[in-house]
Q: What sequence folds into this?
C-alpha cells in the first residue's frame, strides 16, 4: 500500500500532495477509519503550500512565454524562497512522499506550525509588489487577455473544474466539501472572462488566500508531533477527493487481502487537454505554448 501511495505522488508534477492526500483518504474510507483533526489540518497546510508553489511556477511560465522576463524572475525568486524554507521541514522540495494512509511522513512534524508562519510572512512581504508588477508590466495583461477564452458551460460539459473554470465564472472548489477547511477557506473567485489573463489574476488571488489559510492554520496546529493512525486494513472500497492546484483530484480504491487490488484516479489534466484541443483552432502558432500553460495542460494528461 505504501508503494501505491508513493506512485500516486508521481502522477502529476506540481500536484503531488493532492494526489497523495486523495489516495490516502480513499484508503482510509475503505478501511472505515478517519484520521484525527490534527493530521487533517497538517494535510491542509501541505495542500496550500503546494498550491502556492505551483501557482508561482505557472505564473512564471506564463510571464516568460509572454516575454515578461522580469515578472517571471520575480515569481521564481519568491517560489524558491518558499520552497527552500519548506524543504528542511517537509523533507522534500517537491512535497513528495509526505503523506501515508493513516497519517503523514513529514520529516519535522513538530515544526509545521512555525513553517506555516514563516511562509506566510515571506509571502505577505513579497506579494503586493508581485501583484503590482504583474498588473503594470507593459503589454502583459493585453497579450494574455487575447489568449484562450473559454466559457463556463463548455468547461462544465467537458468536466474541467479548478482555477480554469473559476476564472470563467463557474462556482466550483472542492475545498468547500472538505471538513478540514471549515473556518479556513473562503471562496475567492470573482473572475468571469475566461481568458488567460483572468486565469493568471485568479492564481494571484488564490495565492493570497493560501497565505491567509497558512496563517490561520499555524495557530491551530499543535506543538507536539501528530500521531499517525495504524489502519486496520480489510476488504472494501473507498473514495477520496481534494482540490489540487489545477482542480479536483479523485481516487477510488478497492482493498482486498490487505493490498490495493484496484485504483482509479480522476485528474484535471485529462479534461484540460480536451479543452485545449477545442480552443486551439482559434489561435496562431506563436500562442500555442502560452495557451497550453494557461489551461494546465501537461504530460499527466497523456497518462489516462
A:
Amino acid at each position: 500500500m505504501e508503494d501505491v501511495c508513493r506512485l500516486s505522488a508521481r502522477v502529476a508534477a506540481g500536484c503531488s500532495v493532492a494526489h497523495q492526500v486523495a489516495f490516502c483518504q480513499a484508503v482510509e474510507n475503505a478501511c472505515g477509519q478517519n484520521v484525527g483533526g490534527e493530521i487533517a489540518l497538517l494535510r491542509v497546510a501541505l495542500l496550500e503550500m503546494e498550491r502556492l508553489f505551483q501557482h508561482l511556477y505557472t505564473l512564471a511560465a506564463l510571464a516568460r512565454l509572454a516575454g515578461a522576463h522580469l515578472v517571471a524572475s520575480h515569481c521564481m525568486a519568491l517560489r524558491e524562497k518558499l520552497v527552500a524554507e519548506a524543504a528542511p521541514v517537509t523533507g522534500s522540495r517537491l512535497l513528495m512522499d509526505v503523506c501515508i494512509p493513516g497519517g503523514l511522513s513529514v520529516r519535522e512534524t513538530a515544526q509545521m506550525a512555525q513553517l506555516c508562519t514563516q511562509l506566510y510572512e515571506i509571502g505577505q512581504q513579497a506579494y503586493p509588489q508581485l501583484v503590482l508588477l504583474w498588473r503594470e508590466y507593459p503589454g502583459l495583461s493585453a497579450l494574455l487577455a487575447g489568449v484562450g477564452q473559454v466559457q463556463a458551460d463548455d468547461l462544465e460539459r467537458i468536466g474541467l473544474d479548478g482555477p480554469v473554470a473559476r476564472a470563467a465564472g463557474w462556482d466550483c472548489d472542492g475545498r468547500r466539501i472538505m471538513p478540514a477547511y471549515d473556518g479556513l477557506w473562503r471562496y475567492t473567485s470573482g473572475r468571469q472572462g475566461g481568458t488567460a489573463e483572468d486565469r493568471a489574476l485568479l492564481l494571484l488571488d488564490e495565492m493570497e488566500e493560501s497565505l491567509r489559510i497558512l496563517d490561520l492554520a499555524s495557530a491551530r496546529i499543535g506543538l507536539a508531533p501528530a500521531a499517525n493512525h495504524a489502519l486496520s486494513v480489510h476488504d472494501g472500497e473507498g473514495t477520496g477527493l481534494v482540490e489540487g492546484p489545477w482542480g479536483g483530484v479523485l481516487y477510488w480504491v478497492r482493498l482486498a487481502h490487505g493490498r490495493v487490488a484496484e485504483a482509479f484516479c480522476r485528474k484535471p489534466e485529462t479534461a484540460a487537454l480536451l479543452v485545449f484541443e477545442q480552443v486551439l483552432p482559434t489561435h496562431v502558432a506563436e500562442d500555442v505554448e502560452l495557451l497550453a500553460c494557461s489551461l494546465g495542460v501537461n504530460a499527466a494528461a497523456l497518462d489516462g
About this structure: The beta strands are 99-100, 103-104, 236-244, 247-256, 259-266.
